[in-house]
């Protein structure tokens, strides 16, 4: 050890003496003057600023906040012009007593429209002062219309606390600095090895040659150090051991100077072969391996390879790096550079939803682990990449999905569903193995509990897909506990089972071992623990064997007494038939897929909700937007589920803000204050539509304050735009709802959206109707007058925008004069304005859509992706009398169900469906409602 230490000391001395002068850190704000900062808060969130002394004798700024039961944000902002060098590090100090809400650093340009940020979701605020450093690569363009993604200059700085879990707290800020850095070093990571062996031998550690190796001396305690020659950034290391000469216990440390060392990783149960070490965002000159113990009296290493930052920038990146090096099928499809698809598992109005993937893996709940099947026969592991998979639904429409593996030697069917009630729900997964060969054969069905979601890593919004940490796992007979809680119960006791830490090898790596592991319980600091239940059968030709797993989602964590998987499936199927068959539609045989998909869409709208909360999805969009809820409600009402719509409106309406503003959406955090000016009309419409179908005056009386509150708020908004000054600025803005980002296409910069305004008009019309229904003549007259005035202003605005932009179609917004027929459909239904719109512009709008649609369909037009919200155009075609076009569009959209037998659409459809992309949610209940309403319009609709 002494020669190694002396060599490191000599190198450290050289580094210290020869250290080049570094660029000076610039203090942007020392927070000594809190008057430079102003408080920024959203609706009904409160906050205050105060100075606080720091240990160094200076001052810092503390933000005391309270979300007061609503969603939204609170923060501090100041004008602070900054010009950024080619490479840099931005730093600031934070301490706080705060729930784990999101911490955001925002850098805003002079226009105020373009924002760059660092967003730390669910931030754990340190109680003591801690400095956080962000390099240029960590600061990303958040939003804005500017095309330049690189941050070159900014005018304002903002620190934002965004509601993640709510509550109240205190967050303090100090010492915001900017340090110029030299250009990023992208040269290969080359290192020299330092050990206590001969130099010629030690260099074999990092010579890049697969046929050389290093052998240690005959001492258990060994140190291997890699010297990069200067401080470099890297993301991990891969250690390839000589068979039988691995270190099973060792510590990985880093240092920039050879004196001060930081522990990065501890391995306690290494199994040899290849060790994959995630060392994210490491910056050091030296990487040291302190070898503690192993199965032999010495150690042997073939190679240590340092990996770039991208290797393990995130847990998902780490698994993708492994999947690229290991046989296809070792990891789920989503980590292997291929886009997977899935469907949901749940109850009508349940509080948790599972997923089943197209390859047969079952995710137990939102963000949770999955159970993935493997079959071992003839010494080979068969996984999703070795079989052809086929999907189906029971009776072609019930939300009881199956995946069938087809292979020359066997078939495996995986069927999953949820039984019980919202407070006592169990996910059931059934596995039936069938010997399709001509000879008797030994099979092992391996059901692996894995730290991966079915929701793939390409899904980044709200619920990040990919890895789902398992820090502890225990297998006890037919029970598997995950992170200390019993989660999986086997209805049939397995023949064997084991748990495995990541460093000992992922589950699949042990399946062909002559003697599988016998470890029953593991703890794993990597969060990548796994476990397997093994069923060993000898199957005669044509013979089948079946097992079932039960995963409680709510209620008691135990196997239900007397559980019978077949009876449970029959009972669940009958329950769903009674819910989905209330409206019967008779069609010829060729129409059966349409009706089956209609009923499945109804099931997905019911399953996607959480209790009474209607929502478009269960992962990315597990929130209730009133626009989605209102349109889903219409579909539910038309299919006989008035009870669901009443429960939804009754739940949503009280989240209205005190000033009458209707939140764009609501979730567990409360009302979202982002102004989206379609929401007010949508709530009124939702209440009115329920009343039109039920005539429930008692409920209407209860909702009346919410109707008048939304009406009054719309009047305030309308008045703010109905000024002479605004007319002179642009007559297309006059009297409209103010700018907002309710339409997804306007998220870069808010505009006067006609989507908002047609929804506002719908709200005015329905408010007047409801006033009449409740025999309120004064309100009815006032609401009707406002309706007529707003309707006239809307027609005038459309005319002004058409003239300004020289259009021959109805635009999506006043500012842009953009073509968006799918948005314009809202004017027809539910807007009801077809006869009052300029007929030539209306016709040309949908003629243009048809031309673009048919060119895309026929391969005459390049396209990347589209959203199946385009189903709304089918309803428009029906109203325009274009029956053939309605059917042609239906046939096209039906081909893009994903997968087709599961009767569902994602929010986004890609032209390259196997290239990973963000799909939104799958299934997407708002898309399902567009399909439902359009298909029902093909039979009958109200004018």
Automatic annotation (TrEMBL):
- What name does UniProt use for this protein? Coagulation factor 5/8 type domain-containing protein
The organism named in the record is: Xanthomonas perforans
Keyword terms, alphabetized: Signal
Q: Which GO terms describe its biological process?
A: carbohydrate metabolic process
- Annotated PROSITE patterns: FA58C_3
Question: Signal peptide location in the record?
Answer: 1-23
Where the record annotates domain F5/8 type C, the positions are: 172-311
User: Can you tell which superkingdom this protein's organism belongs to?
Assistant: Bacteria
């Amino acid at each position: 050890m002494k020669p190694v230490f002396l060599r490191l000391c000599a190198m450290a001395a050289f580094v210290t003496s020869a250290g080049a002068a570094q660029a000076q850190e610039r203090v942007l704000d020392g927070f000594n003057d809190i008057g430079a900062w102003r408080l920024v808060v959203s609706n009904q969130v409160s906050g205050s600023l105060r100075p606080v002394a720091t240990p160094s004798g200076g001052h810092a700024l503390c933000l005391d906040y309270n979300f007061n039961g609503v969603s939204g944000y609170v923060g501090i902002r100041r004008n602070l012009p900054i010009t950024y060098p080619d490479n840099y590090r931005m730093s600031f100090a934070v301490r706080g007593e705060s729930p784990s809400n999101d911490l955001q650093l925002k850098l805003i340009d002079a226009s105020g429209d373009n924002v760059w940020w660092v967003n730390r979701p669910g931030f754990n605020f340190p109680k003591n002062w801690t400095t956080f450093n962000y390099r240029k690569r960590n600061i990303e363009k958040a939003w804005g219309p500017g095309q330049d993604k690189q941050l070159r200059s900014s005018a304002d700085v903002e620190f934002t606390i965004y509601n993640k879990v709510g509550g109240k707290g205190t967050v303090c800020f100090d010492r915001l600095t900017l340090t110029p850095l030299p250009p990023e070093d992208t040269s290969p990571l080359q290192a020299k090895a330092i050990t206590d062996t001969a130099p010629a031998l030690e260099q074999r550690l990092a010579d890049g040659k697969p046929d050389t190796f290093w052998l240690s001396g005959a001492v258990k305690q060994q140190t291997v150090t890699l010297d990069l020659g200067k401080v470099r950034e890297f993301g991990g290391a891969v250690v390839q051991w000589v068979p039988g000469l691995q270190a099973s216990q060792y510590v990985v440390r880093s240092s920039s100077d050879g004196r001060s060392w930081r522990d990065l990783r501890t391995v306690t149960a290494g199994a040899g072969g290849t060790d994959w070490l995630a060392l994210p965002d490491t910056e050091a000159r030296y990487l040291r391996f302190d070898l503690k113990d192993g199965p032999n009296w010495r150690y042997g290493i073939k190679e240590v390879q340092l990996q770039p930052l991208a290797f393990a920038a995130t847990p998902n990146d780490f698994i993708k790096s492994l999947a690229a090096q290991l046989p296809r099928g070792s990891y789920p499809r989503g980590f292997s550079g291929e886009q997977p698809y899935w469907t949901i598992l749940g109850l009508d109005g349940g509080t948790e939803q599972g997923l089943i993937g197209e390859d047969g893996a079952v995710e137990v709940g939102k963000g949770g682990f999955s159970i993935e099947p493997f079959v071992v026969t003839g010494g080979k592991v068969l996984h999703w990449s070795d079989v052809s998979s086929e999907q189906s639904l029971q009776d072609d429409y019930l939300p009881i999905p199956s995946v069938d593996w087809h292979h020359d030697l066997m078939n495996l069917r995986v069927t999953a569903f949820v039984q019980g009630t919202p407070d006592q729900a169990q996910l059931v997964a059934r596995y039936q193995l069938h010997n399709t060969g001509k000879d008797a054969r030994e099979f092992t069905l391996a059901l692996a509990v894995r730290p991966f979601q079915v929701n793939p890593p390409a899904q980044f919004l709200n619920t990040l897909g990919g890895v789902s940490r398992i820090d502890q796992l225990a297998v006890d007979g037919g029970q598997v506990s995950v992170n200390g809680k019993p989660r999986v119960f086997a209805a049939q006791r397995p023949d064997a089972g084991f748990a495995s830490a990541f460093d000992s090898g992922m589950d699949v790596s042990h399946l062909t071992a002559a003697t599988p592991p016998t470890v029953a319980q593991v703890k794993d600091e990597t969060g990548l623990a796994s476990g397997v239940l093994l069923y060993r059968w000898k199957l005669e030709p044509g013979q089948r064997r079946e097992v079932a797993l039960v995963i409680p989602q709510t209620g008691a964590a135990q196997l239900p007494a007397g559980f019978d998987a077949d009876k449970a499936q029959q009972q669940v199927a009958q329950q769903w038939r009674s819910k989905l068959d209330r409206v019967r539609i008779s069609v010829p045989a060729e129409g059966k897929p349409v009706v089956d998909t209609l009923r499945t869409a109804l099931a997905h709208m019911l399953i996607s909700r959480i209790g009474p909360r209607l929502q478009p999805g269960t992962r990315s969009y597990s929130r209730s937007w009133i626009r989605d809820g209102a349109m889903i409600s219409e579909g539910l009402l038309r299919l006989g589920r008035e009870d669901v719509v009443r429960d939804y409106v009754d739940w949503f309406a009280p989240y209205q803000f005190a000033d009458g503003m209707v939140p764009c959406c609501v979730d567990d955090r409360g009302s979202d204050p982002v102004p989206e000016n379609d929401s007010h009309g949508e709530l009124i419409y939702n209440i009115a539509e329920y009343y039109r179908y039920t005539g429930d005056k008692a409920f209407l009386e209860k909702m009346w304050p919410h109707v008048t509150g939304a009406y009054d708020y719309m009047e305030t908004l309308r008045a703010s735009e109905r000024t002479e000054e605004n007319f002179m600025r642009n007559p297309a803005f006059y009297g409209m709802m103010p700018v907002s980002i309710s339409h997804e296409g306007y998220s870069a910069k808010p505009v006067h959206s006609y989507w908002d305004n047609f929804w506002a008009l719908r709200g005015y019309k329905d408010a007047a109707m409801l006033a009449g229904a409740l025999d309120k003549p004064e309100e009815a007259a006032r609401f009707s007058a406002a309706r007529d005035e707003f309707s006239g202003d809307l027609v005038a605005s459309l005319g002004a925008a058409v003239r300004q932009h020289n259009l021959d179609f109805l635009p999506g917004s006043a500012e842009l004069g953009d073509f968006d027929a799918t948005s314009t459909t809202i004017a027809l239904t539910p807007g009801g304005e077809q006869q009052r719109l300029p007929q030539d512009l209306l016709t040309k709008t949908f003629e243009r859509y048809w031309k673009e649609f048919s060119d895309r369909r026929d391969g005459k037009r390049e396209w990347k992706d589209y959203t199946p919200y385009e189903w709304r155009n089918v309803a428009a075609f029906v109203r325009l009398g274009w029956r053939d076009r309605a059917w042609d569009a239906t046939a096209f959209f039906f081909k893009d169900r994903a997968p087709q037998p599961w009767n569902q659409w994602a929010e986004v459809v890609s032209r390259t469906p196997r290239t990973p992309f963000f799909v939104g949610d799958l299934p997407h209940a708002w898309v399902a409602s567009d399909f439902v309403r359009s298909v029902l319009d093909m039979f009958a609709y109200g004018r």
